[in-house]
Amino acid sequence: MPLELVDAPSGEMFFEDFRVGQRYRSQKRTVTDADIARFVEVSGDAAAIHVDGDYARSLGFDGPLAHGPLGLAIVFGLLFELGTVRSTAIAMLDLDWQFSAPIFAGDEVEFEMTITRCRRTRSKPAGVVHRYFELFNGAGRSVQSGTSAMMVRARDQLDGDAQLCADFGSVAWGKLLVERLAASNEFAEAMSTFDGAVGLEAGRESLQLRIYKGQVLECARSTPRGATFTVSGSELAWVNLAAAPRNAFIARTMAGDFSVTGDVYEYLRLTKALVALWDCIRELATEGIAR
Amino acid sequence: MTSLSYYEISGVTAAVEWAGAGDTLLCIHSAGQSAHQWRQVLQALPAEGYRVIAPDLPGHGRSELLPAGPVRTLSAYRQWLVELMDVMNVPSAVVVGCSIGGKLALDLAANAPDRVAAVVAMAADARNRLLSVRTLELGLEDAASPSRSDRTYYGTLACIGRSVDPERAASIAARHRREDPLVSTADLIAWTEHDLRGELAQIRCPVHLVAGEDDFWVDVRDAEWAAGQIRNCTFEVLPGIGHYPMEELADFPELLAGWLSEIVIDRGSERWMTPRQSSS
């Protein structure tokens, strides 16, 4: 298992302590009527659906709904209670959030967080950590989910590139992957009839591998004639497949974790090559984490 | 020791592998495959007093294609199986099936109830939500792609359970890639389009419904829901097993014999030939 599940991290974490695939589960917290009332005061959002039980029930809900951003705020409050980055966190950098089901007073919520990318900042002793969050209600149903990156202090001026091996979709990662592909007979043989470029996209990072008869000629952000086809997935999908006990690329593609654009039939023709490609990606990730 | 017999079914030649004497166990294979999937059962269940019959569905294994070509509806397969039972003089059988075979077993129990004494349905649900008929139809046009058998090979590996030895898994996947892609794609269209949800309540015979924990083709919750709709049904999840229990498990015959001893009553008697009345 290249990646690890951590239930209760202890102590302050610097950038170097984070690894792609680490997974945390928060404490539970019960959302109360008083929470919702206070959030009305703080935000000024006194919409009837949050304050008027009869109105909410007339719309088919069991009672007033907590504000969506209250759930989000609770995630970051529970995250503070984890205590891992109280003095090392520098800034929250972005947020992409989905509200998939309502939260009501009385719900006992908790979240799970997965580290999906770790990238060292070159200009100062810090790094950027990408996180995927999923918030569950007491019945175990996912009610909110999303991603957020934070900047966190690093111990050293510049550490090695251990985390690069799981920096999926970046060109620097791609160059490490190309070294492995060059050593894979399975990949070379399965690609022996291909002349084109394969795009790989993990979240917002993407690269193209220009390939001729099994040999990768170039790894770059873009290639002159573009990708023949591109395999795309969220950062979480990449992490989950890299961490899976076996190469489940086919199963996870069928389940919708990955999608393909471009010449889909050429992609299908190269099924064997893509399985070999994923063998190399998984090996590289394992080594990166263990280093 | 098993035997192979040929019959004329729906006007074309059908191959049936069989062994033993006694109460009939009708084994139905999965999409694109053939009676080879029941090799272990054919070898072992005669010792339990069963006559095991395992047909190759039309267009599969050694059975000829029907004149209309690959079959695209499960009801056509059901009619073909009833005709086979008539020709082979089988008034009633315990039906064991996997995947489309499992769904066919449930369909036979719902729509030909006097021909089915009990059912073991594996990797079966009432309605599959995963596949798109439109995509499968495109797949029929793309069936000549040289990588089509690679897709079957890796797709099969992906839906075999994690507890299966990799060498055994590779040998199962290698057998599966010998399919006719036009036939197996038509099978998947038949599987996807056949919605059994409204018919499960018609089933009166005892049923054991089995789902593999690692089977990505069938959502365990869908299979459990289907089991809940059948009056006399037990449900079991096989840990670490995927879509093909009869091939994945080296001790499958013992497991099957155990299930049968739970659900098949009055072995060898006249009454056995008529379906058990529901307890509810």
Report on this structure.
The complex is a heterodimer of chains A (291) and B (280). With 291 residues, chain A is of the alpha+beta class. Chain A folds into two domains: 5-160, Hotdog Thioesterase (Thiol Ester Dehydrase, Chain A); 165-285, 2-Layer Sandwich (Nonspecific Lipid-transfer Protein, Chain A), CATH 3.30.1050. Helix content of chain A is 33%, strand content 28%. Chain A has ten helices and twelve strands. In chain A, the strands form two sheets. In chain A, strands 1, 2, 3, 4, 5, 6 and 7 form a seven-stranded antiparallel β-sheet that branches. Chain A is globular, with a radius of gyration of 22 Å. The model of chain A is unreliable at 1-5 (pLDDT under 50). Chain B is of the alpha/beta class and 280 residues long. Helix content of chain B is 36%, strand content 19%. Chain B contains ten helices and eight strands. In chain B, strands 1-2-4-3-5-6-7-8 form an eight-stranded mixed β-sheet, with helices on both faces. In chain B, helix 4 packs antiparallel against helix 7 (181-193) and helix 5 packs antiparallel against helix 6 (166-176). Mean pLDDT of chain B is 92; it is low at 271-280. The A-B interface holds A 245-246, 248-251, 254-255, 265, 268-272, 275 and B 130, 142, 145-147, 150-151, 154-155, 157-159, 162, 216.
